[in-house]
Amino acid sequence: MIQLHDKQFVPFISATEIDFAIKKMVAQIEDDFFDETPIFIGVLNGSFMVVSDFLKLYKKPCEVSFIKLASYEGTSSTESVKQLIGLNQDLTGRSVIVIEDIIDTGNTLEELKNLFKQQNVKHFKIATLFFKPEAYKKDIKIDYVGIRIPNKFIVGFGLDYDGLGRNLPEVFQLKE
């Protein structure tokens, strides 16, 4: 068990399970985009560890960029998404694959879909390490899912609780 600020968290997903899920997503995406040079878009801050491990395993030509959106305060979604850092390159005709750390309500995803629709991309795909199907409220297809999890608050592997926990190599769940 670990303590972050005023909350306690218990072990939930091991580093080994995370590694296996990322390898699975890499293999699927390499198969789907074998003849293209996709651009991977990481959603900061949470996706930095996922993107890093993903790119170390991705053996084909690719590009990477980041966008920063914010939708959480504490342990709950604010239901609104703010764009803090945007993209500064032309993506017209490109295959874009967004790499997320976690998808729960889908509000951030909806904002991303609208943003990339305006860019006239060739393909727009979504990859997420963690997916909370119980919390998902949108009708946007998620193309690559690493691990499906219950609708519980988690930290570690890029995910935080008010700034703490991102550096943990495994995932912890809020203790009930």
From TrEMBL:
GO terms for molecular function: guanine phosphoribosyltransferase activity; hypoxanthine phosphoribosyltransferase activity; magnesium ion binding; nucleotide binding. One of its GO terms (cellular component) is cytosol. Its cofactor is Mg(2+). CDD domains: PRTases_typeI (cd06223). The keyword tRNA processing does not apply. Residues 19-161 form the Phosphoribosyltransferase domain. Pathway: Purine metabolism; IMP biosynthesis via salvage pathway; IMP from hypoxanthine: step 1/1. It is found in: Cytoplasm. The keyword Cytoplasm applies. It catalyses: IMP + diphosphate = hypoxanthine + 5-phospho-alpha-D-ribose 1-diphosphate; GMP + diphosphate = guanine + 5-phospho-alpha-D-ribose 1-diphosphate. Its EC number is 2.4.2.8. InterPro entries: HGPRT, Hxn_phspho_trans, PRTase-like, PRTase_dom. Keywords: Cytoplasm, Glycosyltransferase, Magnesium, Metal-binding, Nucleotide-binding, Purine salvage, Transferase. PANTHER family: HYPOXANTHINE PHOSPHORIBOSYLTRANSFERASE, HYPOXANTHINE-GUANINE PHOSPHORIBOSYLTRANSFERASE. Belongs to the purine/pyrimidine phosphoribosyltransferase family. This is Hypoxanthine phosphoribosyltransferase.
